[in-house]
What does this fold into?
Amino acid sequence: MKRLVLRGITWNHSRALPPLVASAQRFEEYHPSVRIVWEKRSLHEFGHASLAELAKVFDLLVVDHPMMGEAVDVLVNLRPMLSSAEWDDLKQDSAGPSFESYIHNGALYALPIDAAAPAASCRMDLLDAAELSIPAHWGDLLELARRGIVRMPGFSADLFLNFMGMCVTAGSSVVVEDGQLFDRAIAANCLEQLRELASFMPEAIYNWNPIALYEQMASTDEFAYCPFAYTYSNYSRAGFAERPLRFSQPVNFPDGAPMRTVLGGTGLAISESSLMPDIALEYGLYVAGKTCQSTLYGVSGGQPARRSAWKNPVLNLLTDGFFERTLPSLETAYIRPKYHGYIALQEKAGIPIASYLKNGGSPTQAVDQIDILYRESSSSKVQHA
It folds into this structure.
């Protein structure tokens, strides 16, 4: 019997690949004529590689929602392929704005399969040994940082996205007006707050993305707390890392407002070049379905995009309550811009932020540099979904 082969591309982490391999294996058992082959690429390649080039090679693409601005003529619009019941089910059971994030100009370009937003994390054993509590407010965070036991990811894209979350929390919109990304006064103040926090951290953080930070945090006793980084429930699961991490809500801002973070997660898209979009969609709906998300996908190390999965007691038992602890910040997460050209901005705009955090100078000049990079990344006003 000749088998139909679907090729998929995801990113290289235990949160991404194993649940897709497990779901593909089970789907193949239901559909003996189908074979699904998953390949992986680095996290950096995932965030910045050309969607159009990948779509020429793969049927199934795991994508980030800001990529939706590049999806026209590259990814299949799934909206007309879904029944009203399927649409309503995905929408109503979405973890935070995960489903909404893949809608662009009325089209749905991916099915949400993974949900994430920055949250706090800690080594409870180290905090308990030092008789310290998880900080609740910005002042508490700074006090903990002065002890030298706080770190955050300083990779340029992560700096930019956490800075965006701070600006949104402080009341700025994103794209205040043509040519200006954030409210200037708010942005400058947030940079100063971020620099004060970073001043208590070593140079090494600027080489860390969230994965690198979590690996370091779970394998050494160098630090005990991270105030915000994109979450990975794997590190709270027994047996995954040498020392488990506990995740919690980010601290409240100096004015008392809960910090609003920036949505991450991934969706499963179908290439326009695929010769088997119907089979690809059937598989996608299986992976994104309520049953798979709450069982096979989540148990295999995945971080589901279904709200019902985040409330599932079995998954919370496996992860020290990770999903229940971090769901509130996910539900209020901010959806990033989706204009064509935004993806490159994330990494580039983090460079002046890193420079200011390391070297000081004028925060308003750093804001000017961010705005210049924003204008270069887009020739027209952002079109939100």
Q: What stands out?
A: The CA atoms of residues 179 and 375 lie 5 Å apart. Residues 380-385 have pLDDT under 50 and may be disordered. The longest strand covers residues 4-11. The chain is about 45% helix and 10% strand.
